[in-house]
Amino acid sequence: MTSAEICPLIRKRQTKIVATLGPASATIEMLEKLVLAGVDVVRLNFSHGEHADHAARVKIIRGLETKLARPIAIIADLQGPKLRVGRFKDGSITLTAGQRLRLDLDKTEGNDTRVNLPHPEIINTLSPGAFILCDDGKVRMKIVEKGADFLIAEVVAGTKLSNNKGVNVPGVILPIPALTEKDRKDLVAALDMGVDWVAQSFVQRPEDVAEAKKLIGGRAALMAKIEKPSAIELFAGILDLVDGIMLARGDLGVEIPPEEVPALQKKIVRQVRQSGKPIIVATQMLESMIESPAPTRAEASDVATAVYDGTDAVMLSAETAAGKYPIESVSIMDRICQHVEADDLYRRIMDADHPDADTDASDAITIAACQVAQTINAACITNYTSSGSTTLRTARQRPAMPILCLSHSAQTTRRLMLSYGVHAVYTPDITSFADAVKIATEQATIQGLAKKGQRLVLTAGVPFGTPGSTNALRVAWIE
Questions:
Q1: Which residues are catalytic?
Q2: Which ranges carry the Pyruvate kinase barrel domain (predicted)?
Q3: Fewer C-beta within 10 Å: the chain N or C terminus?
């Protein structure tokens, strides 16, 4: 494949775009259009669809990798426990402020005085004074009485409650495993399909992700979805154990006051960047584009804010999975990212908050490479990496130029496509520094990242093939 043929896939931005696959985006033709429009990472939502459907999409994606000569990362998003009320005799009930509703374990269809709450863990955990939210927070109730197998709740806000609406319980850690039996089966299937990342839902404690990491056994990278307030309180411990973070603001915004979400987003993005791990800002980014060909100005501003915050990636959910305008959604998100990154303020923000250096030679070399690249206006920074650690260290510096990651591990190149500014390429094993320079300059040209007469900054570990041994820096000319 020639440079001209690859050119459409050279992104004019560093922030990555994640798109969720579904009925609106399941065909080979649509998937190719999405990738050409700007998708770097695809998300398979295991809350929906059969294993065979997801496996077919993985096969299509791997075929596209070969056709487009570009790694594509795949995230398997596990459903996690779903807390819901039961069913009503008439399908729904009308609520008024001050009305009392009994929540119990009786599976009989409910009415305007009681409803089934099939979660004894919630009934056992909550006490009078606690709040319970239903239907994404549209219904808010306060617990006023507790029995052995029931709760009495008083309606504070909300006018209607219908069958199987979701339940949120803010401010408590529920004794519910983050991995359900369905999740365990889905996890095995996803790993057998060869996904690159696993996103774990309903994470409340570090122990939740520790269990998932053990089950994954290194076959994929693990990402914790931050959607519970308890995960915020224990965030440092969770971050230590995982390989990346997805900030699921939609669910999180139900359980914490909405005015707290923007500041929390900035804090989490900064903390994850400091750790050198990738973060996705997700949910409700361009939600109106499920039905409309253009986003609202508020949605465009929301995407831009995430980019100004320094996120690695922004995500589309139903917009690409089931929406009427999947290509347009990706295209406008791509343009928003480009426009923000071209703003002088954006570069000043990124440069003003460089993470502190770790006390090891590899990090020192990586920081020096970014500084040298900026000083000489290099076309790109090139890393040779086995595990991906060198490239992750480079990405956390948020350099202004692309990061060309060369690795003999296809798994590594795919995982790194989620990270800020990374253009990953699979290469054979390198045995000498002379070969490394030769291949780096060739690939920078082939991939459309550099032109004749430009310079690149190269880092590598000598001897080659030793993970975590970055100890060499070189400036090379493109001839």
A1: 43, 84, 225, 283
A2: 13-330
A3: C
Outline which parts of the chain fall under CATH 2.40.33.10: 92-168
How much is the average pLDDT of 299-311?
Answer: 98
> CATH 3.20.20.60 region(s) of the chain?
16-81+177-350
Task: Please compute the mean of the pLDDT values over residues 219-223 and round it to a whole number.
Answer: 98
CA distance 454 to 1: 23
Question: What distance in Å separates the CA atoms of residue 266 and residue 469, rounded to the nearest whole number?
Answer: 32
Residue 181 burial by CB count (10 A; 0-12/13-18/19+): exposed, middle or buried?
exposed
Superfamily of domain 16-81+177-350: Phosphoenolpyruvate-binding domains (3.20.20.60)
Beta strands 150-157 and 92-94 are unpaired
User: Which segments of the chain belong to CATH 3.40.1380.20?
Assistant: 361-478
CA 314/CA 294 separation, integer angstroms: 17
pLDDT in tens, 379-395: 999 999 888 999 999 99
**Dihedral-angle region of residue 326 (phi above 0 means left; psi in -120 to 50 means alpha; beta otherwise):** alpha
Nearest to 478 by CA among 376, 366, 370, 341: 376
